[in-house]
TrEMBL record, chain A:
Binding site for FMN: D60, T104
PANTHER family per record: ALKANESULFONATE MONOOXYGENASE-RELATED, C2H2 FINGER DOMAIN TRANSCRIPTION FACTOR (EUROFUNG)-RELATED
Native organism: Streptomyces fagopyri
Protein name as catalogued: LLM class flavin-dependent oxidoreductase
Keywords of the record: Flavoprotein, FMN, Monooxygenase, Oxidoreductase
Presence of keyword Repeat: no
A Pfam family it matches: Bac_luciferase
Family: Belongs to the NtaA/SnaA/DszA monooxygenase family.
Top-level taxon in the UniProt lineage: Bacteria
All residue ranges annotated as the Luciferase-like domain in the record: 36-312
Lineage: Bacteria, Bacillati, Actinomycetota, Actinomycetes, Kitasatosporales
GO MF entry, a single one: monooxygenase activity
Automatic annotation (TrEMBL), chain B:
One example GO MF annotation: monooxygenase activity
Pfam family, one: Bac_luciferase
Keywords, sorted A to Z: Flavoprotein, FMN, Monooxygenase, Oxidoreductase
Keyword Flavoprotein applies: yes
Native organism taxonomy: Bacteria, Bacillati, Actinomycetota, Actinomycetes, Kitasatosporales
Name of this protein: NtaA/DmoA family FMN-dependent monooxygenase
Organism field: Streptomyces fagopyri
Residues binding FMN, per UniProt: T97, Y151, S222
EC number: 1.14.-.-
Length: 405, 458
C-alpha cells in the first residue's frame, strides 16, 4: 500500500472561516469582512495551490457555528455564518488548475441524489479535482431547520454514553447508505453511454445507463443519475473519524479518513484498527489513505508561535482546545512531527491553520519548502486529477463490470 | 405623442433535453463539459444579455418503460454549474430552475443566498412544482405530494425561503476586530415558520446577500400558475410567442398584479423563443425547414405520436399515414418525466383532428409532427429578426425573450454578433449593463427592507 512515489507525503489544508482559532478573525491578516465574498476563498485556495498541496477541504454546517456541540451559544464575539461549501468550491474551481476541492456535505438532512449530481458537476467544472467530505449532524438545532426529524438535546459528553453511541451508530449507518447511493449514482452511467448515433437517432445507449435500485432503512433511490459519470469516475470520498463507528465507515466507504492521533503510538493504533476494518470489509487491496489532522500555529521562531497562540487565547478568554493535536512551533519542527507520524502509518496530513491568513502561507512558504528539501514532498504537480495526485486509479464502473461478467 | 420605446430584456437558455436541440449537427458540442457552458455564458455576456437560464432534471425521462434516448440525455447540477459560471462572467444573471417539491426551504435558501454572495448579486430562481411519484423515486420523501397541493407547497416554500432571506437585514456583521464584536446582536438570522407544509425555526446561517433575495421566476401558465406569479414572482417564463397570444397573456397576467398591491412593472413577461438566422429571409426559411427535420427524426415523430396515442407505435412507418387505432385512454401514461405528455387533455379528439389534418394536406406522421409541433419563433435575416422581436416587445406581447438556440454551445453566436447590434442601433437594447446586480439590469426594485434601508441612509 505505497503512496505515490512522486509525493511520499500528502498534504491538505482544512479551510474554515478565518481559521480554526475562535479569535483568529481579530488578527490583522484575517479579513473577516471578506468572508462572504468569492475573492476571499479564491485567495485562500490559490495560496494552497501555490504550495502544491493535494487539496483543500471546506468546512460546512446547516446551522450557525457554536462553541457548544448540541446547541447555539448566542455568542457575538466569534465568526458566525457560512456559505455553502459545495458552491464555494464550484466558484473557485475555474480559477485554479491543479488543487483538489473537497467540500463538506451534511448527509443527515440532505438528499443523496442532489449531492451526487452536485459533486459530479464539481468534477466536471474542475476537470477531475472534486472530492467530498461527508459529515453527520446530531445537532438538535440543525434538525429544527428541516422540521422532518427531532433530535433531543445532547452534549459532546453525552454522545459518549451508550444512548449517545446508539444514536451516532444510527446516523453513521445512514451515512454509509448515503455514500453507497452517491457512489452507485456516479457509476449509473457507463463512460461511453453517450453514443450520438445519427443513423438510429439515439443520443445515448440506454443499456449503458443503470438503475441503482437502492433500498435502505432510511431512504430508497431509483436512479440513474441525471449527470453522466464524472471525469474521475468516482470523485474522492473522505470523512473525519474519531472512534470505532466512524473508523468503520472510513474503512468501508472512503478513499481518505482524517484521524486525530496525538502521538505516534495513537496513530499506529488507529491505523491498525482501520486496516483491520478495511480487511473485514474486503477492501484490503484498495488504497485507502489515513491522514492525520493537526491544528497548526506556525512561525519561524517557536517563541513567536507560542506568543501568538497565547495572545489569541487571551482574546478568546480561554485556552483553545481541539479534537486534533495542536502544534505550535516552526516549520522545521512540524516537518519532524509529520515524519514521525508518517512512520507510524499515516500517508498524509490535513492541517488546520489556526489563523488562515498567517498559518496557510506559513504552510505553503515555510513547511512545504522544508519538506521538499527533505525529499518528502512534490516539487510540481504530477497529475491532472485529484485521484491522480493521491495515487488512486480511475476505478472501473461497477455496472459495466457486471454487464460484461 | 408616441410612447417612449420599451427596453428589451434578453436571456439565453442553455439548450436542454428537448427535441429542439439538434445534437446530430456536426457543430453541436458537449452538453456536459464545462467549456460548453463557458462559451455559451461568455457569448451571452458579450451580447449584454440579462441572464443565462438553466433548467433542471431530477429523473431521466422514460417512454414505454424505457429510458428515452432520442434527445439529449444528461445534464449537470443547476446550482453547481451556475456558481462555477459566476467565476467566468461578471455581469450575467444566473437563473436556475429549482424544484420546490424535492427540496427543503432551509437548504435551498442557503444555496441561493450562497450563489448570490458568490456571484456578487446575480442569482435568480425559477420556482417550479412537481408532484409525480416517478420523480419522487429518486428522493427520500418519495412521491408524497398530491397534485392539488403542489402550488400550496410551492407558495409556502417560497414564502418560507423569503423569511430566511429576510432573517438577516444586512447590518448584523460589524466585525470590529478591536472591540471583539463580530455580530451586532445574538439573534441574527432568527426565524420561526409554522405552516401546513413546513414547521421550522432557528437561525439562518447565511448573512444577507447582495440582492437580499434572488430574483424569482415562475413558469407555467395554468390559472394557478398565473396567480402564483402575480402574487410572488419578479418575472414569468411563459411559452406564448405569437403576437396576439402573447398580448392576451401579457394583459391577463399584468392585470392580476393590482390585487396583490403590485405595480404593472413589478413583473416581467419573458417567453421562451427559438430563432433561425441566415443572411436573407429566404435562406433562413430554407434553413428553418432543415432544422425542423433534424429536430423531428422519423423515430422522434413516432415517439411524439405515442404521447397522444398512449401506446407503442414502433411498428408504424414515420413516412406513412397516421394510425387507424384510437389512443389508449385506459392505461397509465406511456411517457414519464416530461411536462408535454400532459398537454393533450382529450387524446381521442386530438387523434381525430390530426388524422383529418394529415389527410387534408397529405402529411405523413413525420410531416404532421413537424407541422403541429413547436415552431421556430423568429426566422429571417438579422434585420427581420431584430425588427420582429422589437415589434413584439413594443406591442406588449412580452418584455423580452429567453432565447433557446438549437445548437450547443455556439447557437447564440450569430445572434450576439448580428442581431444585438441592430437592436442597440434602434435604442431598444442596452450597450452596457445598468448596474452590479441582476435586479438592476432587469429594472426590478430591491426587496422592501433593502429599499427601506436605502431611504433611511439617503
Amino acid at each position: 500500500m505505497s503512496a505515490n512515489p512522486a509525493s511520499p507525503l500528502h498534504l491538505a489544508v482544512a479551510l474554515d472561516g478565518t481559521g480554526w482559532h475562535p479569535a483568529s478573525w481579530r488578527e490583522k491578516v484575517a479579513r473577516p469582512r471578506d468572508l462572504f465574498t468569492a475573492g476571499y476563498w479564491a485567495d485562500q485556495v490559490t495560496e494552497a495551490e501555490r504550495g502544491l498541496l493535494d487539496f483543500v477541504t471546506l468546512e460546512d454546517g446547516l446551522g450557525l457555528q457554536s462553541s457548544h456541540y448540541g446547541e447555539l451559544d448566542g455568542r457575538t464575539d466569534q465568526v458566525r455564518g457560512r456559505l455553502d461549501a459545495v458552491l464555494t468550491a464550484a466558484r473557485i474551481a475555474p480559477l485554479t488548475r491543479h488543487i483538489g476541492l473537497v467540500p463538506t456535505a451534511i448527509v443527515t438532512h440532505t438528499e443523496p441524489f442532489h449531492l451526487s449530481k452536485a459533486i459530479a458537476t464539481l468534477d466536471y467544472v474542475s476537470s477531475g479535482r472534486a472530492g467530498l467530505r461527508v459529515q453527520i449532524s446530531a445537532r438538535p438545532h440543525e434538525a429544527d431547520h428541516f422540521g422532518r426529524r427531532t433530535f433531543p438535546p445532547i452534549s459532546l459528553e453525552e454522545l459518549q454514553s451508550p444512548d449517545g453511541q446508539e444514536r451516532l451508530t444510527g446516523l453513521f449507518d445512514e451515512a454509509a447508505d448515503y455514500i453507497e447511493v452517491v457512489r452507485r449514482l456516479w457509476d449509473s452511467w457507463e463512460d461511453d453511454a453517450e453514443i450520438r448515433d445519427v443513423s438510429t437517432g439515439r443520443f445515448v445507449d440506454r443499456d449503458k445507463l443503470h438503475y441503482i435500485d437502492f433500498e435502505g432503512k432510511h431512504f430508497s433511490v431509483k436512479g440513474p443519475s441525471i449527470t453522466p459519470r464524472p471525469p474521475q469516475g468516482q470523485p474522492l470520498v473522505t470523512a473525519l473519524a474519531h472512534q470505532t463507528v466512524p473508523y468503520r465507515l472510513v474503512a468501508r466507504q472512503a478513499d481518505i479518513g482524517y484521524v486525530t492521533p496525538h502521538d505516534a503510538d495513537q496513530a499506529r493504533a488507529i491505523v491498525s484498527e482501520i486496516r483491520a476494518e478495511q480487511t473485514a470489509a474486503g477492501r484490503s487491496g484498495e488504497l485507502l489513505h489515513v491522514f492525520g489532522d493537526l491544528v497548526v500555529f506556525l512561525d519561524d521562531d517557536q517563541g513567536a508561535a507560542e506568543d501568538r497562540r497565547a495572545r489569541l487565547d487571551a482574546l478568546a478568554g480561554e485556552a483553545y482546545t481541539s479534537d486534533a493535536r495542536i502544534f505550535t512551533g516552526t516549520p522545521t519542527q512540524l516537518a519532524d512531527v509529520l515524519h514521525e507520524l508518517g512512520e507510524a502509518g499515516l500517508s498524509g496530513f490535513r492541517l488546520r491553520p489556526a489563523v488562515a491568513g498567517h498559518d496557510l502561507p506559513a504552510i505553503t512558504r515555510g513547511l512545504v519548502p522544508e519538506l521538499q528539501r527533505r525529499g518528502a514532498f512534490r516539487t510540481a504537480y504530477e497529475a491532472d486529477t485529484l485521484r491522480g495526485l493521491l495515487g488512486l486509479h480511475r476505478p472501473a464502473n461497477r455496472y459495466a463490470a457486471a454487464a460484461t461478467a | 405623442m408616441s410612447k417612449p420605446l420599451k427596453q428589451i430584456h434578453l436571456a439565453a437558455h442553455f439548450p436542454g433535453v428537448n427535441n429542439t436541440t439538434v445534437w446530430s449537427d456536426p457543430k453541436a458540442g458537449s452538453h456536459i463539459e464545462f467549456s460548453s457552458f463557458v462559451h455559451f455564458a461568455r457569448t451571452a455576456e458579450r451580447a449584454k444579455f440579462d441572464f443565462l437560464f438553466l433548467a433542471e432534471g431530477l429523473r431521466l425521462r422514460e417512454q414505454g418503460g424505457k429510458i428515452y434516448d432520442l434527445d439529449v440525455v444528461g445534464r449537470p447540477d443547476t446550482f453547481t454549474i451556475l456558481t462555477a459560471l459566476a467565476a467566468v462572467t461578471e455581469h450575467l444573471g444566473l437563473t436556475g430552475t429549482i424544484n420546490s417539491t424535492f427540496n427543503e426551504p432551509y437548504e435551498v435558501a442557503r444555496q441561493f443566498a450562497s450563489l448570490d454572495h458568490l456571484s456578487g448579486g446575480r442569482a435568480a430562481w425559477n420556482v417550479v412544482t412537481s408532484w409525480d411519484a416517478f420523480t419522487g423515486e429518486n428522493f427520500r420523501r418519495g412521491g408524497f405530494l398530491p397534485q392539488e397541493e403542489r402550488y400550496s407547497r410551492a407558495k409556502e416554500f417560497l414564502a418560507t425561503a423569503n423569511e430566511l432571506f429576510d432573517s438577516w437585514h444586512g447590518d448584523e456583521i460589524v466585525a470590529d476586530q478591536a472591540a471583539g464584536a463580530f455580530l451586532r446582536d445574538t439573534k441574527a438570522g432568527s426565524f420561526v415558520h409554522h405552516g401546513q407544509h413546513f414547521d421550522i425555526h432557528g437561525q439562518f446561517d447565511v448573512p444577507r446577500s447582495p440582492q437580499g433575495r434572488p430574483v424569482i421566476f415562475q413558469a407555467g401558465d395554468s390559472d394557478e400558475g398565473r396567480e402564483f406569479a402575480a402574487s410572488s414572482a419578479d418575472a414569468i417564463f411563459s411559452r406564448y410567442a405569437t403576437l396576439e397570444g402573447g398580448r392576451a397573456f401579457y394583459r391577463d397576467v399584468k392585470q392580476r398584479l393590482a390585487k396583490y398591491g403590485r405595480r404593472h412593472d413589478e413583473l416581467l413577461i419573458l417567453p421562451a423563443a427559438s430563432f433561425v438566422l441566415a443572411d436573407t429571409d429566404e435562406e433562413a426559411g430554407e434553413l428553418a425547414k432543415d432544422v425542423r427535420r433534424l429536430q423531428v427524426s422519423g423515430a422522434t415523430a413516432i415517439k411524439h405520436l405515442e404521447f397522444v396515442w398512449n401506446r407503442d407505435l414502433s411498428s408504424y412507418d414515420p413516412e406513412g399515414p397516421l394510425p387507424d387505432v384510437d389512443p389508449d385512454v385506459s392505461a397509465d401514461h406511456i411517457s414519464q418525466g416530461r411536462a408535454q405528455a400532459r398537454m393533450y387533455r382529450d387524446p381521442i379528439a386530438t387523434a381525430r383532428e390530426w388524422r383529418e389534418l394529415a389527410a387534408a394536406h397529405n402529411w405523413s406522421i413525420r410531416d404532421l409532427v413537424i407541422e403541429t409541433g413547436n415552431r421556430q419563433n423568429f426566422i429571417g435575416s438579422p434585420a427581420t429578426v431584430a425588427h420582429t422581436i422589437n415589434e413584439y416587445v413594443q406591442a406588449d406581447a412580452s418584455d423580452g425573450f429567453i432565447l433557446v438556440p438549437h445548437i450547443t454551445p455556439t447557437g447564440l453566436d450569430d445572434f450576439a454578433d448580428k442581431v444585438v447590434p441592430l437592436l442597440q442601433e434602434r435604442g431598444v437594447f442596452r450597450t452596457d449593463y445598468e448596474g452590479p446586480t441582476l435586479r438592476h439590469n432587469l429594472g426590478l426594485a430591491l426587496p422592501d427592507d433593502l429599499r427601506r434601508e436605502e431611504r433611511v441612509a439617503s
